[in-house]
Design goal:
With 159 residues, the protein is mainly alpha-helical. It is built from 8 helices and no strands.
């Protein structure tokens, strides 16, 4: 896919005055930020991912983006390393160290669980994920009508 068509997909004509474009973008950004900082909020999503681990369509619709879960895994791992460094230097109270370590470990456990479940599903069911990726990449966004053959195909697969 060329850069021009990718940009047209992300920034359709009149995007700056489209409320749906702004609301969707702000929602996605907020969910990714929440996933990176406080993945504990998504415990229900983790449970749903584990329950529906063999259903790619359900996994693809989890709240928070997959990138948000990976960012949470990396950020909380780095936070745990920083916390360990501060604890070794003895500059933090024991109670605060224990609370922050518990917070980071809980976030790591939740994001790692979702990461492993999604990776396992992608490895075991590549055809279903290929279809979902095709639909995500080519489906018309923000209420824009389908214009290309790929967009029509993605729209039919979406229904």
């Amino acid at each position: 896919m060329r850069l021009g068509s990718r940009l047209r997909g992300e920034f359709p004509s009149g995007w700056w005055r489209s409320a749906r474009w702004w609301i969707t973008g702000i929602r996605d950004l907020a969910l990714s930020t929440a996933a990176a900082v406080a993945i504990v909020v998504f415990v229900g999503e983790m449970v749903r991912a584990v329950r529906h681990r063999d259903e790619p369509r359900t996994l693809a619709r989890l709240s928070g983006t997959f990138e948000g879960y990976v960012a949470s895994l990396l950020a909380n791992s780095a936070g745990l390393v920083v916390l360990a460094t501060l604890a070794i230097e003895d500059s933090l109270p024991v109670v605060l160290t224990a609370l922050l370590a518990g917070w980071c470990l809980l976030n790591i456990a939740i994001s790692a669980t979702v990461f492993v479940v999604a990776a396992r599903s992608r490895i075991r069911q590549p055809a279903a994920w290929a279809e979902l990726d095709f639909v995500e990449q080519h489906a018309p966004k923000y209420g824009r009508p389908a214009e290309t053959i790929a967009e029509y195909q993605a729209q039919q697969l979406q229904e």
